[in-house]
UniProtKB/TrEMBL annotation:
This is Phosphoglycerate kinase. Substrate binds at D20, F21, N22, H58, L59, G60, K61. InterPro entries: Phosphoglycerate_kinase, Phosphoglycerate_kinase_N, Phosphoglycerate_kinase_sf. ATP binds at K192, E304, G329, G330, D331, T332. GO terms for biological process: gluconeogenesis; glycolytic process. Pfam families: PGK. (2R)-3-phosphoglycerate binds at R35, R109, R142. GO terms for molecular function: ADP binding; ATP binding; phosphoglycerate kinase activity. SUPFAM superfamilies: Phosphoglycerate kinase (SSF53748). Its EC number is 2.7.2.3. It comes from the Bacteria.
């Protein structure tokens, strides 16, 4: 990958920066600005060199405006929001840009061409700029027009954060340090099978938490009550025999209005598993203490409904450890931001699903497209 420091004659050139400002928004307000903060070094670098910067991003599945994102972005850096993507308004705004100015275009997914990976849409976007920069690691696993077609139409470069993501996350599969502890939470078992299989080979211990653990507990023959489970458990019976695999032996369940800490094999039919139990965190604590590399993706409980405790406790334990710590996943990162702990880890990724694909395949379509 070529990085932005290799771009020559930046002054006055129009640079399309594909960022990922797909931020959590509630009641019209941005809840977490982590991804904005992480894109700023690239934006600042190019602005100082007097580029004309055009920021492009998606938000949600399409249909939403980026106006709330523009408002937050403006607290960090002066930008002008253009509520248009490739139309006349945008073309005029780009024509009138002065060196060092920044504009943010409207949600790319408001044009069907983005998700359909339309060549025409990509060509129209390319007409707006002279250079393309990918600073959107979290969406680089999507074969969208602005991710895989645009870099083929313009000279293309990797943003500073994208480079850091690739470098740091590669430590997981490129001669990892040992003992290597991989912690995997969240849900969607079927999408995580390849990852679990791969890291059962690469890591020394693979701890499974979150709703993912429910599938394993169910496969062990335990009652999981009304807990969230996957629709498929293909391949699980083989994985479960692996000695490196560690499951929570204690869970927190919602029983009526109460939260109860209990043995994982004592869950009742009407209960819902919300979190790892405190003894399970204790088990993880000793592995965290001895690990030299900790890779963690996905929350360990249903954090939005009272299952945040074990994730917070484990975050504190990892923060204290001397191991290289690489953490990611949207929900976990939101918690890290809330707890103001980012500086305590070796690397906090901006990615969600993109991390899983990168860890499983060693690259992403958006990264390959830059070469
Ligand atoms: C993310 O937030 O994980 C990325 O922006 C990708 O979003 P998507 O899953 O809607 O493609």
């Amino acid at each position: 990958m070529r990085g932005i420091k290799q771009i020559k004659n930046i002054r006055g050139r129009k640079i399309l920066i594909r960022v990922d400002f797909n931020l959590p928004i509630k009641n019209g307000k941005v809840e977490d600005d982590f991804r904005i903060k992480k894109a700023l070094p690239t934006i600042n670098f190019l602005q100082k060199k007097a580029a004309k910067i055009i920021l492009i991003t998606h938000l949600g599945k399409g249909g939403d405006t980026l106006a709330p994102v523009a408002e937050v972005l403006n607290k960090f850096i002066k930008i002008k929001f253009v509520p248009d993507i490739i139309g006349e308004k945008t073309q005029k705004a780009v024509r009138n840009m002065k060196n060092g100015e920044i504009i943010l275009l409207e949600n790319l997914r408001n044009n069907a061409g983005e998700k359909e990976c339309s060549k025409i849409f990509a060509v129209n976007l390319a007409k707006l700029g002279d250079i393309y920069v990918n600073e959107a690691f979290p969406v680089s696993h999507r074969e969208d027009a602005s991710i895989i077609l645009l870099p083929k139409l313009l000279p293309s470069y990797a943003g500073l954060q994208l480079e850091k993501e690739v470098k740091n996350l590669s430590h997981a599969f490129n001669k990892p340090k040992h003992p290597f502890l991989f912690i995997l939470g969240g849900a969607k078992f079927s999408t995580k099978i390849p990852l679990i299989k791969k890291y059962l080979k690469l890591a020394d211990h693979v701890f499974i938490g979150g709703a993912l653990a429910n599938d394993f507990l169910k496969s062990k023959g335990y009652e999981v009550g009304q807990s969230l489970v996957s629709d498929t458990n293909y391949g699980i019976s083989k994985i479960i025999k692996n000695k490196k695999l560690i499951l929570p032996d204690y869970v927190v369940v919602k029983s009526g209005d109460k939260l109860i800490n209990k043995k994982a094999n004592e869950v009742k039919k009407d209960e819902i598993i919300l979190d790892n139990g405190s003894q399970a965190v204790g088990k993880l604590a000793s592995l965290i203490k001895t690990a030299k590399l900790i890779l963690w993706n996905g929350p360990l409980g249903k954090y939005e409904v009272g299952g945040a405790r074990s994730t917070k406790e484990v975050l504190k334990l990892v923060a204290l450890s001397k191991a290289e710590s690489i953490i990611g996943g949207g929900d976990t990162v939101t918690m890290i931001s809330e707890m103001n702990m980012e500086h305590k880890f070796s690397f906090v990724s901006t990615g969600g699903g993109a991390i899983l694909d990168f860890l499983a395949n060693g690259t992403l379509p958006g990264i390959t497209a830059l070469k």
